[in-house]
Amino acid sequence: MGADAVAGDMKLVRIIKSVVLKIFQITLFVYSFCCCNWLLEHPVLSQSLSSIAVLDSQNIWVAGAEGIIIKYDGVAWSSQRTISDCFIRAISFSDSANGWVVGNTTGAPPGNGLILKYSNSTWKIDSFAFKQGLRKLNSVYSLKPNQAWIAGDSNVLFHFNGTDWQPFGTPFKDTMVTITSFHFLDSSHGWAAGVYVDLRHESALMKYDGAAWSKLQGPDSTMTGSYFYIGYPSIFFADTSHGWLAPGMASGLIHKYVHGKWSNDTVLPGGHYVITDIAFTDSIHGWATAVLPIDCDCEYPSDIYRHDESGWHPCSTRANPLYKIKMLNANYGFAVGETGSLLKYADGGWQPVLHPTYNIVKHIQMLDASNGWAVTANRLLKYDGIMWQDDSVNDSIDWNVFSFSDKNHGLLGGEKGRIKRYYYGTWSDEVTPDSNSLTALFLLDSNHGWAGTQQGRLWKYNGQAWLMDTISLSDKLTGIRFTDSAHGVVATGSGNVYKYVQGVTIRVPPKINLNSYTQIFLDSAYPERGYVTNGERLYAFIDDSLTPVTVDDMGIISEGFDFKSINNGWSIGEGTLRHYNGLYWDENKLPSGSWYYSVSFLDSLHGWIGGNYGKIYRTDDGGISFVETSCSDNRMAETLKITPNPFNPSTHINFLLTTPKAVKLVVFNISGKKIATLADRTLPVGRHSVNFDANGLASGVYLCRLTAGTRVNTKRLVLMR
User: Fold this and answer.
1) Among residues 78, 155, 205, 662, which is most buried (max CB within 10 A)?
2) What is the pLDDT of residues 207-249, one digit of tens each?
3) E strand or H helix that includes residue 278
4) If you average pLDDT over every residue of the chain, what do you get?
5) Nearest Cα to 90, choosing from 348, 277, 264?
6) Can you give the residue ranges of every domain in the chain?
7) How far apart are CA 484 and CA 320, in angstroms?
């Protein structure tokens, strides 16, 4: 056989191997996706939250977009039911065992009314809205377990009497009204507010006397101000003589009702704010959520205002738009709003509960399987091997960058030149080298670090103090990387990349577009080689020049990367995770619903990615599938972590308890037959690990169910022999 024939056969063999490998990867991906799904480890709050019900400190319900419903039981928040393709607009509970939600579908066809009833610990669809052809439902109020009111567009008003829904016509016979808000003191005293379909400059108000609804004379319809905005009016009464109306207009006004007369109560002088909701605990003490119109160019377009004997006062909550507020009493309450904003009032102040997840996870650095860090806008998150949680360093400033040389040594930089040093588990303030915001940071080891500022200054850390370097680039520094104390690369916001040698900078061509955060990697074994990403494209740094990295003649889109060497690394961009093995790039699709900016791998299998809405995902199979991990300090503590998974023949089931609880850990097969009881006893606070040995079991999917107190969490196990 000739040499050409042999070469041809070898080429064919390589092609066949490549095809078989790709088929195997695709099969494993489909199997993982179809059998394992995307496993949710905590309530995801990227959705807008539109309504809240507060029964007591151990029964709080929140609902919103994408059908999200979450519940707080006094210990942690958990997802109760998510119904895709719907928007839940209102939620109401008569007691802890009976409640309702209403809204509308968002899929095909959109806009159909939706009613769900909660009883016997289960949410069920009430078909009444579909049978009647009702459109969007805006409000619900439950008085007793078997009594409720619903309202919606075009004079829709129905009462549930325990058996079925009965029409209860509005008193507005001559025009169409959309009811948007209910409030009841008892079964004989209720109020409702809405808007006229013709958008006249006044609210439509009704009063219920236990038998029928009648029109309630509203306040003066004349509204002043250059902006006019119709939102959803909200009404609240503390007793039959004292009530308040938020008209949903950009006026900064609340209308106050006292003994049958309305008057204007100015919350925000100057107008333009829309008061979205109100709640009072008595005739004097109350709260209001306020939002600037959508065209407002401001970082925090919402706030909460408190009312006392001297009037209204801002609470400075630094929040995204807030839509609803509920107070259990003068010292305990909640507010919800856009992109997962959920705030709690206790101990005299408002604090995030499940932090708003609109922040981007800008950077992740994993040091080992039990130590990792991530930074969002003003939060530093720490990974402890099970979940992400707020680190104690967090305060009111924005942290921009961080860098760790190992698990015991790190630096954190933020606005106004703030720097903190991490040393064996403790953060301490460093002497501020500069009053300008820090925009780049790199720690080589415990005695060598660098910080770059918005003004282009480079500061050097010698293990004791920060000293200004001899170079000044007069431009914002966006990236820093050093291989030793004298050799490195720095990048600036104007698109210039410089090689740093013994205090001298040499520009590396060509000039590229750089954003506010530039990643740089240099291979310590080959200091003249590495990679740079500007948040858009991936460039190879080779022999003092930058060259775009391409696949099939197309430049790689790279939002972020993690390289271990010039021949081993990962890059993310356009919803794709790419791995380079020194010869070619492999690709895996990332979970939908987010845009990803950061990636960090420990080895070829175990990695993490971070994106917008505060989402952080973990993979244990090199990127074929991902599991969403918690990034909140008020999470479901009983989150299960199973490693390895898939497994053969044994695996470890790990979970964390924040309080002592009766625990039952059971494994079932896919048909629901119990295979093994791994734990059935009271366990103390702390982390627990239980071994599951599957010897004698067939390959396939099994279910692991953890019951801890009243909470239940189930995960899939995949046995692959």
Assistant:
1) 205
2) 999 989 999 988 865 443 333 444 678 999 999 999 999 887 7
3) strand 274-280
4) 80
5) 277
6) 1-36, 48-160, 170-358, 366-629, 637-719
7) 43
